[in-house]
Amino acid sequence: MQTITVGPSRIREAVTMREAIDAVRAGFLDLAAGEFEMPTRTALRDGQFLVMSAHHRATASAMIKTLSLNFDRAPAITGTVVWTETGRVDSLVADAGAVTTLRTGAAVGVATDLLAPADAGRLTLVGAGAQAPDQVRAVHTVRPLRELTVVATDPRRAEKLAESMAPELPGTHIRTSADVTAAVGEAEIVCCATNTTEPLFAASALPARVHVNAIGSFRPTMRELPDELLAHSTVVIDELGAVLEESGEIRHAIEAGGLTRNDLTELGTALSAPEAPRGEQTVFKSVGVAMQDWAIARLLADKFLA
User: Fold this and answer.
1) What are the residues facing 80 on neighbouring strands?
2) Element spanning 295, H or E
3) What tens digit of pLDDT does each residue of 254-282 get?
4) Are 85 and 3 in contact (CB under 8 A)?
5) Domain span at 135
6) CATH number at residue 71
7) I want to staple 67 with a disulfide (CB 3.0 to 4.6 A). Which of 96, 154, 229, 238 is the partner?
8) Position 110 in a domain
């Protein structure tokens, strides 16, 4: 009996984004089928400390993640993911920062593959923090990018991210912009990965045909998207209970009367009925759920445990 510890570099070497997307997609389907016990996460100190857990009934496996968030330090996400399974005597402990960014990107990959136009190839990324690279990788995996525009409040961070992503995106035109309104106006896909408390752009700034992913806000006080966009879009979420408790933009739009609970479709349900009618503008709003961490932890367990 032993505990295997897997650090960030080994996680990156072991799990491709395609594998992560496939695993998280399967996880969302199982979530919709009722295969998980998954309590809403515990948030302490207004979200600076988070505890998440999930039990997968079919495999008798469980995952617990504990992490701390501090956007003024690098890395911003620190903590551990612990995996156990009744069929294995060994357990696994993985770096929570790498698992979190990978699984968040993977969820965006699943949603983008389902909701974005098949020919979409122009991505505007708003935010250049820890989550940003895996947002790009995930979208590129399901919709090969012709153009990438990075928008950030700090132009130096935008330039640094653009430079770091260039080797992974051969043939993609990459640029930075300080004008978020202009940048989203030219996009076919938008990814928002910020910790803002106010909407990043007006709904009128977006093209008539666009898919928007919003993963940055995870507390009721945080909002990346305007009410008007949510009111007039097909809105897909990761999990109803989680977004009603934690998503500032969903809560605000419901309180303003532009959105109801019946307007929200969980991603697992949408995957089960991919031909359901949807509008020209689609939104995926995610606050992150423990199933996603379980999905990545299971991949790691399969690779590192006997």
Assistant:
1) 66, 95
2) helix 290-304
3) 999 999 999 999 999 999 987 877 889 99
4) no
5) 117-288
6) 3.30.1780.10
7) 96
8) no
68-99 residues labelled b (16+ CB within 10 A) or e (exposed): ebeeeeeebbebebbbbbeeeeebbbbbbbbb
> Angle at the Cα of 19 (from 125 to 11), degrees rounded to 5?
80
Task: Please choose, from the candidates 171, 170, 135, 167, the residue with its C-alpha nearest in 3D space to the C-alpha of residue 150.
Answer: 135
pTM: 0.95
Distances (CA, A) of 39 to 51, 54, 296: 10, 7, 18
**CA–CA separation, 200 and 191 (whole Å):** 11
Could you tell me if 282 and 233 lie in one domain? yes
- 146: pLDDT confidence band, cut at 50, 70 and 90? very high
Domain count, the chain: 2
Tell me what the mean pLDDT of segment 9-36 comes to: 98
Which residue has tokens 């653009």? Answer: 162
User: What is the rounded distance in angstroms from the CA atom of residue 174 to the CA atom of residue 190?
Assistant: 15
Same domain, 134 and 262: yes
94 forms beta bridges with 6, 81
**pLDDT given at position 101:** 97
Banded pLDDT at 285 (limits 50, 70, 90): very high
Domain-located, residue 77: yes
User: Could you tell me if 40 and 177 lie in one domain?
Assistant: no
DSSP character at residue 306: -
122 - beta bridge partners?
A: 147
